[in-house]
Write a structure and sequence with these properties.
Blueprint (H helix, E strand, L loop, with lengths): L3 E3 L13 E9 L2 E9 L1 H22 L7 H8 L1 E3 L3 H16 L9 H8 L7 H11 L8 E4 L2 E4 L12 H15 L5 E5 L2 E5 L8 E7 L2 E11 L3 E6 L26 E8 L2 H14 L1 H9 L5 E6 L4 E3 L11
Antiparallel strand pairs: 1-9, 2-3, 3-7, 4-6, 5-6, 7-8, 8-11, 9-10, 11-12, 12-13, 13-14
Helix pairs in contact: 1-6, 6-7, 7-8
């Protein structure tokens, strides 16, 4: 996904002079996770260690590549009896966002991703269409069934991917840990999926810059958030082909890479929400995406379409940096 980058904050503040800024970055969930907190040194280290550990627990549940994870076993077997609270919440919340977005967010697109990874982009348009149509028979969020403490897939060969929601959930869980350990000012950034506790210790909001995809030394917008979450989905980091025409954000309604946008940034109440909505809005395109966001309370968006035209929801301005 397109990265949104937390800008630096001062180490100390007039508001809370006894607090210093501590920051740590670790490799988790196929990305780099940075946690920044204002606290005393002992409290900061202990809290960050605990938050990273909690995110590691989520990764062990949600990874579809770790053969010991629940998500991997779910894909292998097609069902799970008594899933963990983490996996259950991830799937139930995914289904909620699938319904909310009219199916533009769909965790069952993994077979389509596998097709493209295996070289579908090398084949003729006719061959591509034929294979996609066959694969689409086992794609569809409505084919995931939840009955009591059992979750199962309707069709043989179905597989899920939690890549569009798991990082957001892990960030939320990290924030919960930090709060429970008395941290009052913090930012957690998992490869561009971010959430904050309050502001910086000097009372200023956390600043988050959105890179220009055509020139990464420039930023297109700078957001300022306090006690909010932000996430961006973008199409120019993970491509399947050298021509960069096939990327990792698949439109579950067509089987092809979504092509109306180059990025969609969402600001909202929690990171799982903005993670899922960023993916959905990217796939929906500007018109439908803005329409969805305007229908939701306390959610805003910033969209860049394929022609580099920008779109903003009506309330976004309160989160934009003003010089």
């Amino acid at each position: 996904m397109l990265l949104v980058i937390a800008l630096g904050a001062s180490a100390c503040s007039a508001k809370a002079p006894e607090l210093e800024k501590f920051e740590d970055t670790r490799s988790l969930m196929d990305t780099y996770v940075t946690i920044a907190v204002y606290a005393d040194e002992d409290s900061a280290g202990e809290a960050m260690d605990a938050a990273f550990a909690r995110m590691g627990e989520v990764e062990k549940v949600a990874s579809i590549f770790d053969q010991e994870s629940e998500a991997f076993k779910f894909n292998q077997n097609g069902y799970l009896d008594e899933p963990s609270n983490d996996l259950f919440k991830l799937i139930i919340t995914s289904l909620y966002y699938s319904k909310l977005t009219g199916g533009y967010f769909d965790i069952t697109v993994q077979p389509l991703l596998d097709l493209w990874k295996e070289g579908l982009w090398k084949e003729s348009p006719e061959s591509q269409q034929s294979k996609i149509e066959e694969t689409m028979k086992i794609v569809g969020w409505d084919k995931i069934n939840v009955e009591g403490d059992k979750i199962y897939l309707d069709a043989d060969g179905m597989e899920i991917t939690l890549g569009g929601i798991a990082k957001g959930y892990a960030v939320d869980e990290a924030i919960k840990i930090l709060r429970s350990m008395g941290i009052e000012y913090a930012l957690v950034n998992a490869g561009g999926d971010m959430s904050t506790i309050s502001s910086r210790a000097d009372g200023k909001p956390w600043s988050v810059a959105l890179e220009n995809p055509d020139d990464t030394s420039q930023c297109l917008a700078t957001f300022e958030i306090s006690d909010k979450s932000i996430a961006t989905s973008g199409n120019y980091e993970r491509y399947f082909n050298p021509e960069k025409t096939a990327h990792h954000i698949i439109d579950p309604k067509t089987g092809y890479s979504a092509n109306e946008c180059i990025s969609a940034t969402i600001v909202g109440e929690n990171c799982m929400q903005v993670d899922a909505l960023a993916t959905a809005v990217f796939v929906m395109g500007p018109e439908k995406g803005i329409g969805l966001i305007e229908s939701l309370p306390d959610v805003e968006c910033f969209i860049i379409d394929a022609e580099r035209t920008t779109y903003s929801s009506s309330g976004l301005s309160r989160y934009l940096y003003k010089e």
